[in-house]
Description:
Elements (H helix, E strand, L loop, with lengths): L11 H13 L4 H15 L11 H45 L11 H18 L7 H5 L1 H8 L9 H14 L7 H5 L7
Helix pairs in contact: 1-2, 4-6
Amino acid sequence: MSTTAKFIRADDPTHEALQQLAKEHKLSNTKLLAAMVEYFRVTKADPQQPAAPDLATSLAKLTTKLAELDKRTIGFIREQEKTYLKPILAEVQAHKMLSTPAPSAPAGLSDAQAKELGAWFLRVLLLGVRPDLLSPEAVASEPQLSAAIKGTEPDPTLNNMKGELIKVLRLALPPENITPRLRDISLPKSA
Length: 191
């Protein structure tokens, strides 16, 4: 492939500057000129307005944009923390606190609590299940049970357990075996 050489007229200082640039970039004068033409074509820069980029202004703009992005990112993170992370942490801590017994609390139910819960549950069964489904011993124990729990103050810490037992009983027994009274028994409020 042969190319025809064309000559470009330049004054001495321009020619020296071209040679110096070619030397700095390790190009021949011809290749440097081709690279310069391509540069102006691609960048659409005006060769008659040679202005070096103002690095201070560019840096200031970048710094401002970075600061804005930083503020937005921090704002987003804080919003996520407030909306999601803190409530989740509070729930986890509450669950941990509720599931861990107090160091002074005895393990399990006390004898009085167990006796109260047993008497209460037997009374619920006697009131809530059809009498023909109960054992004769359970039915016969009702007067003694009433006398035993009369005058005793119910333990409010057992309310959650009582409520859950009523739910299980309603779920486990077919409706035809439940008296209307069991359906009407309100669930104990938690203490």
